[in-house]
Task: structure prediction
Amino acid sequence: MKRIFTIATLILAAALTSCVTPETGDKQLDALTSYMDLQDVPGVYTYANEQGKSTYTFNQSDGQGYFNKSKLTYRIMNNEGNKYVQFVLSAEPVAGQSVDVKMTSKGIKELSSSVTYKAMKVDRLEDNKVYLIGGADTKYTALILVWIE
Result:
């Protein structure tokens, strides 16, 4: 009797695990990653309402960018200086590795004034930019930062 119960339990467990679909978060992360493949403007990007969107990006005609490799810092601000977002990396980015990113902002209602993104994956480094993607559950964020080697 115990043997039949054990076999039935194993069969049921196998059937249930074969029906499991990818988590919603995994689909959103994949969608944001695909969206980021089409972007090249430095800034902050998020995934919401089944699509990627730019939250705050560098505007060349109305903004300024600042990069300091020795301080692992990149900043975007408007010409008036009343809106900005600054990123400080925990280490120099290496493709395929992860870094923490401390982000501070001012005057941008869509962004928290201070947040640290833990273990953002360095998706790629190309054209003097670093592409970072990370998040948890269903809140995913992507960053494109100027990074000059």
User: Anything to note?
Assistant: DSSP finds two helices and nine strands in the chain. The longest strand covers residues 114-126. Strands lie at 43-48, 51-57, 63-68, 73-78, 84-89, 98-106, 114-126, 129-136, 139-146. The mean pLDDT is 83.
